[in-house]
Amino acid sequence: MNGSSREIWITSGLMNMAFKIGGNVMNTGLITNLPKEAIVEVPCLVDASGITPTYIGDLPQQLAALNRTNINTQLLTLEAAATGKKEHIYHEAMLDPHTAAELSIDDIVAMCDDLIEAHGEWLPKFV
Fold first, then answer.
1. What mean pLDDT is predicted for residues 71-78?
2. How far apart are CA 92 and CA 109, in angstroms?
3. DSSP assignment, residue 57?
4. Which pTM does this prediction carry?
5. What is residue 2's predicted lDDT score, i.e. its pLDDT?
6. What is the mean pLDDT of the segment spanning 36-51?
7. Quick check: helix, strand or coil at residue 42?
C-alpha cells in the first residue's frame, strides 16, 4: 500500500467514510483472463475495514492480450530475481515489444550485460 492509499485508509477509518480509488492489487481472480501472479489496477473501496478490490471478470480479448505482453515480461523479471538465472533477463528483454522491435538478439544480450554490470550492486547475483 503506497503512502496516499494508506492515508485514505486511515482517514476513512477515523472519519467513518468510504472512498473509491484505482488500486494496484494482487490479481486474486479479479481479472479472470490475466495471470493470478500479476498486479492489476482495479476499482477499490477503502473504508475502516480495509481495502476491498472489485471483481472485474474477463477483459475483452484484445485488452487482455495487450496487458499480457507486459505482464509476461514482468513475470520473467521476477523469475530471474528468484532463480538468479541471467537467461531469464535475456528472455524478458527479448519478449519486450519495444526492445525486440529496435534491437537484434545479440544487441539485447549485450545491453542486458551492460545494464547488469552498471547496476549489479542493486541486483541479485546472476549466473
1. 92
2. 11
3. B
4. 0.73
5. 55
6. 91
7. strand
